[in-house]
Amino acid sequence: MWAGLVLASALTAGGALAQGLPEPLPALPGDPVRGRAIVEDRQTGLCLLCHSGPFPDVPFQGDLGPDLTGVGARLDPAELRLRMVDSRAINGDTIMPPYFSRDGLNRVGDRWTGETILDAQQIEDVIAFLATLTQEESE
Amino acid sequence: MKRGGVAALAVLLTGPAQADERRSGFDYMGPETQLMQTDDMANPGMLAVQAGMRLWQETAGDAERSCESCHGDAEKSMRGVAARYPAYDATAQSAVDVAGRVNLCRTRHQGAEPLPQEDADLLALVSLIGLQSRGLPVMPDPDPQMSQWRSRGADLFDRRMGQLNLSCAQCHDDNAGGHLGSAPIPQAHPTGYPIYRLEWQEMGSLQRRLRGCLSGVRSDPWPYGSDAYVAIEAYLMQRAAGMPMETPAVRP
């Protein structure tokens, strides 16, 4: 519900697509250590199924989404938040799953009905971690 | 320069649409897995075929008839059959895949119970029948009733589903050749079913494979035998028309 409201405001701000969600989700400030664990975990974040990045200890990273190397330099937290909450706001055809929106979903399995992929705290944790990825080259 | 001219001429003669960009899942596999498929002595699917040959000759049901009683030698009578399935069955007023056809034979002609989906005996018979099309081009059933099945399959293929909100097409059309984790995403040409899948360590049908993706996007798979699977199968086989059948294929 909340995600739908902030998304609607992002979509209408200034009559054009806002590029970010500056307001943090209702959660404690993001913890980059927990955020890294979520990103690297294949069952929780699922991130590295599609993205690769500066994670030398994680095998089998995907190549369907942009490389996360330097993403914290390319995007600010508000931009990261919008892409995490519902990337369809940027690109209606995106393959990025909506991590904090249940809008317009179809045939969601019973196990996941009514749930978002991550909760507000997890989103803020991941944003806090991604913001630390400011090096353009992995060492 | 000269080569460019020849290439341009080739394009003029054949048109760019003639270039076949379609690739079997076989092409995305490593050489060891490819060899496991192409060497009949190494292909675990050939064990299912052998079981199928035995079952072909066994009587079943109240009619005490075997497949062979009516169809004779499978190598002759079943040649090319799997390459045109799913096919329309006028009596059932439904498209049926090869497994569905076997079960219709059981109930209509053998007086036997249908075999459950993914039953080893059913997969064995379907593998035997599929082998008789190996190397032949996919030739979809021309029955006009099939077009509505294919169009329903196309709708389902393009529809986003599940908590991850992904359609089949977003991975298998738009991102074929990319990698989900380490796994290459193939183009969804179901030319080798039933397959021996290393991940399963056994034979399985296209319906089982589709269920895997549905669970993967966090949707609920349709029940086995649902029309939705047959519709998708019919659509995919239309897209694969002309590609060689590979049954029994091996896949990672």
Write the layout of secondary structure elements.
The complex is a heterodimer of chains A (139) and B (252).
Chain A: H1 2-12, H2 32-40, H3 47-50, H4 71-74, H5 77-86, H6 120-130
Chain B: H1 2-14, H2 31-38, H3 45-57, H4 67-71, H5 74-77, E1 87-89, E2 94-96, H6 98-110, H7 120-131, H8 146-158, H9 168-172, E3 179-180, E4 183-184, E5 195-197, E6 202-204, H10 206-216, H11 227-239, E7 249-251
Parallel strand pairs in B: 5-7
Antiparallel strand pairs in B: 1-2, 3-4, 5-6
Brief write-up:
The complex is a heterodimer of chains A (139) and B (252). By secondary structure, chain A is mainly α.
**At the third CATH level, what is the topology name of chain A?**
Cytochrome Bc1 Complex, Chain D, domain 2
Principal-axis shape of chain A equals globular
Q: What's the story with the biggest beta sheet of chain A?
A: none
**Number of continuous helical runs of chain B:** 11
CATH architecture of chain A: Orthogonal Bundle
What is the total number of structural domains of chain A? 1
Span of the ends, CA to CA of chain A = 41 Å
Account of the protein in words:
The complex is a heterodimer of chains A (about 140) and B (about 250). Chain A has about 140 residues and is mainly alpha-helical. Chain A has one domain (about 1-105, about 115-130): Cytochrome Bc1 Complex, Chain D, domain 2. Helices cover about 35% and strands about 0% of the residues of chain A. Chain A contains six helices and no strands. Chain A has helices at about 1-10, 30-40, 45-50, 70-75, 75-85, 120-130. Chain A starts with a helix and ends in a 9-residue tail after the last helix. Chain B is mainly alpha-helical. Chain B has two domains: about 45-130, Cytochrome c-like domain (Cytochrome Bc1 Complex, Chain D, domain 2, Orthogonal Bundle); about 145-245, Cytochrome c-like domain (Cytochrome Bc1 Complex, Chain D, domain 2), CATH 1.10.760.10. In chain B, the strands form three sheets. A three-stranded mixed beta sheet of chain B has the order 6-5-7. Chain B has a two-stranded antiparallel ribbon with strand order 1-2. A two-stranded antiparallel sheet of chain B has the order 3-4. Chain B has eleven helices and seven strands. The longest helix of chain B has 13 residues, at about 1-15. The termini of chain B are far apart. The chains are: A mainly alpha (about 140), B mainly alpha (about 250). The interface between A and B is medium-sized, with 26 and 22 residues.
